[in-house]
From TrEMBL:
InterPro entries in the record: FPF1
Name of this chain's protein: Flowering-promoting factor 1-like protein
GO biological process, one term: regulation of flower development
PANTHER family documented for this protein: FLOWERING-PROMOTING FACTOR 1-LIKE PROTEIN 1
Family: Belongs to the FPF1 family.
Length: 106
């Protein structure tokens, strides 16, 4: 993970590739389901993989899709528009479901 975490107005976000390796700027990231080596290409695919791990869709706002796992306090939030799915959302999923997903350079 290259970049810098920035705290502004009470929100923490990842600014990618700040001072990263040469040629790293603009690299696209993808979320990969490790057991199948499948790249997550839509929320339908993501929801299927998360459901298999016990995550359930959680009622949310019109601009967010959220998933909750009954056995934990974790909540995964992603924008409803998959084109706005960024690495910060991917890393959130990786942290909350260890050893199942990875973020890789495309």
């Amino acid at each position: 993970m290259s970049g810098v975490w920035v705290f502004k107005n009470g929100v923490v976000r990842l600014v990618e590739n700040v001072g990263g390796e040469q040629g790293a700027v603009g690299r696209r990231k993808v979320l990969v389901h490790v057991p199948t080596s499948e790249v997550i290409t839509s929320y339908d695919v993501l929801e299927e993989k998360l459901a298999g791990l016990g995550w359930e869709r959680y009622p949310s706002t019109p601009d967010l899709i959220q998933f909750h796992k009954r056995s934990s306090v974790h909540l995964i939030s992603v924008p409803t528009d998959f084109s706005k799915f960024r690495s910060v959302h991917m890393y959130d999923i990786v942290v909350k479901s260890r050893n199942i997903f990875e973020v890789r350079d495309a």
